[in-house]
Amino acid sequence: MNILTIPLRNLRRKLLRTLLMIAVFSIGVASVTALLELSKAVGESLEEKLAAYGANILVTPRTETLSVSYGGMALGDVSVDIRSLTEDQTIAAINGIHHKDRLSAVAPKFALLTKVGETPVGVVGVDFDQEMRIKSYWHAQSGDLRLGEGEILAGSEAATRLGLSPGGQVVVEGKPFTVSGVLGPTGSGDDAMLFSDLHALQRAAGRENRVHFVEVAALCSGCPIEEITEQLAAALPGTDVKAMGQVVKSRMMTVEFVERLAVAVSGVILLTACVMIGLSVFSSVNERKNEIGLLRALGYSKASIFTLMSLEGVTLGLAAAVVGQAAGFAASSRLMALLDLGAAAPTFAPAQFAAVFAAVALLSVLASLPPALAAARIEPSQALVML
Amino acid sequence: MLIAEDVVKSFAAKDQAAPVLRGVSLSVSPGEFVCIVGRSGSGKSTLLNILSSLLTPDAGSVRYKGRDLAAMGEGERNKLRATDFSMVFQMHHLLPYLTARENVLAPFLSGLRPVSAARRRQALACLDRVGLADKADRLPGALSGGERQRVAIARALVTEPGIVFADEPTGSLDGDTGGQIMDILSRLNADGLTVLMVTHEPAYAAMASRVIEIRDGRIAAAH
Ligand SMILES: Nc1ncnc2c1ncn2[C@@H]1O[C@H](COP(=O)(O)OP(=O)(O)OP(=O)(O)O)[C@@H](O)[C@H]1O
Ligand SMILES: [Mg+2]
Asked: Is B57 helix (H, G, I), strand (E, B) or coil?
């Protein structure tokens, strides 16, 4: 028995009201919890999808193109001038933008059309480490998935066509390269290509420090792709910066909209719950004025009365924090199954539980603050007023 | 021990010209059983409540053990009520959701530290002194009016106060039950408890060691 006895007994006496208050507050907490869980899961699954898309921004030199059409029939674009970018400047500019922390890969490319024997083939010089970040689907069909200075990785189709296998030699632009591995089929343009180290290929072609385009990946859910694109365009005058993966972007916007809506709705619910808790404590104070006066006459300090009345609200809040979070978890796992978010399941994170618990405790303290202060102002002489 | 000097009190009611108390002085010594009598509306309750610190006088002073109540800080006054002063009201003023024993312990339920086993035993002993040890775990709703008032007296005893203020503790009870309460109070007084009581009943006043009569806002007679 201590200062908790009186508030707890009073809550038990008004059991129906107590349960109602806990239920209302729990709904608020549950909706917040479900929202947190859902947005986590949606974010994760989006991130997976984004990663599958690879790079989502393409930086190319601006080319003067002419749309040629004749008699209403489009004949395609004719590039008047194919230009290249300066590697070091471009990379430095990209890595210098404001949102540079959001960039997960900056992969420059130097492309070349050459002949191996009599067969024409495309060779792409890549920065292997950066490339692997956006080509997570690459795997070696034979040999190793690596790309040293004098090595070549062959796309599956190109390897067949040129008869290449790991350990074999290829001469590109007069320089010998060793085939380190053959890539498995990817179903993309990569299959028909040979890949070599960026700098080795530049040197072989006598075009040091030149790149044809740069693929940039900003792989995070809720990435401000538009802003990143704008920043890149500003940092790289004379280039075209295009955001790819419009589908992902529009889906992300939908998710963001739903998230905001859910935040707003649960905010309103929580606010309503707070007001209700405050009113509940207020009515408790009003109907117990004489009781509070009596306690003051028994020597209770204002601080004790304040604590006593706040504890009523806080008890409601803490009960709601537990019930609400449990309900929120249950609801979100149901919803995830309904929304087909793959293997996503709500994960119990003690830190998040503690944070929500603390936040709800704080909210309920704030909610019961005005009535508790009113209670603390009740004078001992109130005990004299007949019931 | 308790000394009042020239206490004046009026209420800010429009229809009330004269003050309720117009200069009341009295003193209570340890171990006394003082009764305040007077006709209805004479200001008995007002005087008692001023003495017990629930009301403040317009003029004059109340001193307890040499300390002026008006000069005390908020905390000091709280401590005084918690330890030295105890009150028994006309209505029992028990908390309906606490058992008899818990009600007796109510003065100790204002802190985080749990009530000690010694205090619990003490509460039971107080209930025993008013003859209610066997009903310690009953809620007030399951007690008779007289029993409730006895619980209220036990609550007033548990803090081992210097003085107990009682405003018509028998007022809401029938003759027999009221007599029981008076027996308990005079027995406690015989054990050394200082009691200051307001009553209507001449028979009860006769049990006191001293009777003070209030008339026209002044002390009319003391015997
Ligand atoms: N809070 C108050 N506001 C205004 N007037 C009050 C207040 N309390 C008491 N009075 C007035 O003061 C006078 C004395 O009241 P008090 O309660 O002290 O009388 P009493 O002697 O205890 O009477 P009773 O024997 O009926 O209890 C009465 O006229 C009453 O109307
Ligand atoms: Mg009275």
From this structure: coil
Those residues of chain B that have pLDDT short of 70 are 13-17
Q: Which helix (H) or strand (E) holds B21?
A: strand B21-28
SS3 A257: helix
Instruction: Name, in order, each residue with C-beta under 8 angstroms of A70's C-beta and a sequence gap of 6 or more.
Output: none
Residue of B nearest to A304 (CA): B110
Residue A108 DSSP SS3 = strand
Note whether B33 and B197 are within 8 A (CB): yes
Q: How close, in Å, is residue B97 to chain A by CA atoms?
A: 6
Task: With 0.95 as the threshold, say if the pTM is over it.
Answer: no
Give the number of the ligand closest to the Cα of residue B214. 1
Three-class secondary structure of residue B23 per DSSP: strand
ipTM of predicted assembly, 2 dp: 0.93
**CB-CB neighbours of A9 under 10 Å:** 18
Q: Could you tell me which residues come within 8 angstroms of residue A285 by beta carbon, excluding any fewer than 6 positions away? A: A292, A309, A371, A372, A374, A375, A378
Cβ neighbors of B82 (< 8 A, separation 6 or more) are: A298, A299, A300, B107, B110, B159
CATH architecture type of domain B1-84+161-223: 3-Layer(aba) Sandwich (3.40)
Using one digit for the tens of pLDDT, what is the confidence trace for B105-140? 999 999 888 999 999 999 999 999 899 999 999 999
Contacts of A304 in chain B (CB under 8 A): 110-111
Cβ–ligand 1 distance for B20 under 6 Å, the answer yes
Ligand 1 pocket, B117 CB below 6 A? Answer: no
Of the ligands numbered here, which is closest to the C-alpha atom of B21? Answer: 1
Question: How open is the CA angle B88-B94-B100, to the nearest 5 degrees?
Answer: 105
For A81-114, write each residue's pLDDT tens digit: 567 888 998 999 999 988 888 788 899 999 888 8
Taking the C-alpha atoms of residue A125 and residue A127, their distance in angstroms, rounded to an integer, is: 7
Task: Express the helix, strand and coil content of chain B in percent, nearest 5 each.
Answer: 35, 25, 40
Q: Find the farthest-apart pair of alpha carbons in chain A and give their distance in angstroms, rounded.
A: 111
Domain ranges of chain B: 1-84+161-223, 94-159
